[in-house]
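Rather than argue in generalities, we reproduce a single protein record, letters for residues, whole numbers for local backbone shapes, just as it appears below:
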Amino acid sequence: QQYLGQLPIPSNKDIAGRDRFVVPLAQIATVERTSGPSEITRYDRVREVRLSASVVDRAAGTVRSDIQVVVDSMMLATGFSIAAVGEAEIQAESFSNIFTALILAVIFIYLVLASQYNSFLDPLAIMVSLPLAVVGALISLLLFGSAFSIISLIGIILLMGLVSKNGILLIDFTKQRREHGMERNAALEEAGPVRFRPIIMTSLATIFGALPLALGIGSGGEMRAPLSRAVIGGMISSTVLTLLVIPVVYTYLDDLAKGNFRAFFGLKPKPSAHKEV
């Protein structure tokens, strides 16, 4: 403390006969011994104090949600803020990017199907299986007690391509029969039993192929398991509901494409008028 008080500080005053005028620090400041941080850290050029912790027997996402509730109820002074950084910040950015990837996957699937069928409505009937798969994936994650994480979202994106094949098998067979002169409802009634076996076979192959990963066996298996569990749940729900929902949606969309709006809205056709001679 004594030596700090003697530290020479240059002055801006001009003193005649002296090139440089300095004064000891003790004449312009008071030096006191006190406590302070051993280092000062900054984040985005702002001083910060970072707190970190490990989670035991709970998901990190739920703990962060509980902390955020407490933070939102706090009255902070002007110039102070509390924000999640590190792994939490990276995970938030990853969630934003993964949802963008999910939307792009749906758009690309629609564009490919529209180009193959030369129709803007037929792909919509096939893509009805996508929300059905998402519902099954969420129910599966809930039943297994898995967290809704980046890994499970990757499994849902994977589902977008897997479940589309069920609708493709059904609609493609129906369109082939209609091209040979078969009536629409008759073609749909034939497509169900004929395409039932390949749909079930491909779905079971996917489910049993993903089953070992869903068991979470081995090192790191529990982290990867939500991906497989989402795929299995989505495949089961999509396979069961595809054979029931897609023919109905295809019928409505076909009426809409033909301009038969009364049939689209479930109304009876108008009776034809006959003139008496």
